[in-house]
């Protein structure tokens, strides 16, 4: 089984061909191809972690659709002063499908 550990936004994800991953927003239209930076490649029993060897490895993915994360609320409150502040946030995400890992 061939899989790679790639840098996806601020996190690391374990991916293989055909996997669908949700990561931080990537610029591009639906159907565009994206190249992910591999940090480690496992090809059967062989593990590749060297920077020189990983420079030859390419992990390609296709943008499936843009998404938004779940809504979080931020509340600020100070006692006895009447100060209250409410703010919401939804992280912009992108769903991608890994199409190839080439060595």
TrEMBL record:
UniProt keyword Ubl conjugation present? no
Question: Which Gene Ontology CC terms are recorded?
Answer: ribosome
Q: What Pfam families does its record include?
A: Ribosomal_L21p
Q: Which residues form a coiled coil?
A: none
InterPro entries in the cross-refs = bL21-like, bL21-like_sf, Ribosomal_bL21, Ribosomal_bL21_CS
Q: Which PROSITE patterns match?
A: RIBOSOMAL_L21
Asked if the keyword RNA-binding belongs to this entry, the reply reads yes
Q: Which UniProt keywords apply?
A: Ribonucleoprotein, Ribosomal protein, RNA-binding, rRNA-binding
Which domain of life does this protein belong to? Answer: Bacteria
Question: HAMAP family, alphabetically?
Answer: Ribosomal_bL21
Its quaternary organisation is: Part of the 50S ribosomal subunit. Contacts protein L20.
This chain's function reads:
This protein binds to 23S rRNA in the presence of protein L20.
Q: Which family does it belong to?
A: Belongs to the bacterial ribosomal protein bL21 family.
Protein name in the entry: Large ribosomal subunit protein bL21
Q: Which organism is it from?
A: Georgenia faecalis
